[in-house]
Write a structure and sequence with these properties.
Layout lengths: L1 E3 L11 H19 L3 H4 L14 E3 L2 E3 L17 E9 L8 H16 L4 E7 L13 H13 L7 H16 L3 E7 L3 H8 L8 E4 L9 H9 L3 E4 L9 H8 L21 E14 L4 E14 L2
Parallel strand pairs: 1-3, 4-5, 5-6, 6-7, 7-8
Antiparallel strand pairs: 2-3, 4-9, 9-10
Helix pairs in contact: 3-5
């Protein structure tokens, strides 16, 4: 069973995971308030509002909250916008599932914005993080991913990256995505990756943390290969399982969607987040963000 939030629009400077989780809470609260029955509105809160009143089930998927694409879209014509999306594949999400997941994620953004194409898609692979100090020793770049595995994240090998990338290349061939990009690639990883791609990434987005200095070897290599370097402050594991259960559970700030340990009503099972897609629509001639939001999917595994 999948769950996907409706569009979330919040203009903040928070890190993406903090922005995302706070946006989800606000979005759930708004949806619950909108669905509140007259009895609840008059102050009778003895019975908690059922999650079924503000969510929608479509076959085996539950949209949390309900999505109404008819009310979304952009104010101006498509050529007036630069639309960028970032697709985060989360730990323990096998590469073999990503083609269908990529198409599902992109389709949701296209439906939300009422467009047929995206200008730039950046992919974030699980267990990959950029460290400027590792540029001095290419062998450390591989060890960096191994270190991520030791902390409970999935190790993303080059073969899995290339397999996933082929799905993005197909969307590029179909005209759905104009440019492709990667995230957190150092010089060594980028060099190996470029040798195995048909449609080359034109962007490499890196998190330089607090130093704000991009290593010179990476700058020189990216320039040589005509790859644009961009910085960001996103978290690779943007949606850990514990956060999902907290958001959807029966705690004080929870949405009451998942069944609780004290026989609280709701959906039973364990939650495994699969992916998150972040989208931004910027008005080209003004540089103003008109529309920004997220979609996410988590699998429900029966205990």
């Amino acid at each position: 069973m999948g769950s996907g939030p409706a569009a979330i629009r919040r203009s903040t400077a928070l890190k993406s995971n903090a922005e995302f989780t706070s946006s989800l809470r606000a979005n759930f609260a708004t949806a619950q308030q909108s669905a509140t029955s007259p009895t609840h509105a008059n102050g009778d809160s003895s019975q908690k509002q059922s999650y079924t009143s503000w969510t929608t089930q479509n076959d085996d998927a539950v949209f949390i909250p309900s999505v109404n694409f008819a009310k979304s879209g952009l104010a101006e014509e498509r050529p007036q916008y630069e639309i960028t999306v970032k697709l985060f594949f989360l730990p323990r999400n096998p590469a073999r599932c990503r083609c269908a997941q990529t198409r599902e994620a992109v389709k949701l953004v296209l439906q939300e914005l009422h467009v047929s194409s995206i200008d730039l898609l950046i992919v974030s692979y699980p267990g990959i993080s950029f460290d400027a100090e590792d540029e001095d020793d290419p062998e450390l770049e591989g060890a960096m991913s191994t270190g991520a595995l030791a902390h409970g994240n999935s190790l993303e090998d080059l073969d899995s990256m290339v397999e996933t990338w082929a799905c993005l290349e197909a969307l590029h061939d179909e005209g759905v995505i104009d440019k492709l990009g990667v995230s957190e690639f150092g010089t060594s990883r980028l060099s190996k990756f470029l040798q195995r791609t048909r449609v080359r990434p034109l962007v490499n987005q890196i998190n330089v943390r607090d130093c704000c200095v991009v290593p010179k070897p990476l700058i020189l290599y990216a320039k040589e290969e005509e790859v644009e370097l961009l910085t960001h402050n996103d978290c690779t594991n943007i949606l850990p399982p514990g956060i999902v259960r907290e958001l959807l559970g029966h705690s004080q700030e929870g949405a009451g969607v998942l069944a609780g340990a004290d026989r609280d009503p709701g959906i039973s099972g364990s939650i495994e987040p699969q992916w998150v897609i972040k989208y931004t629509a910027v008005v080209r001639n003004r540089g103003v963000i008109e529309n920004k939001g997220y979609f996410a999917v988590a699998e429900l595994v029966n205990d």
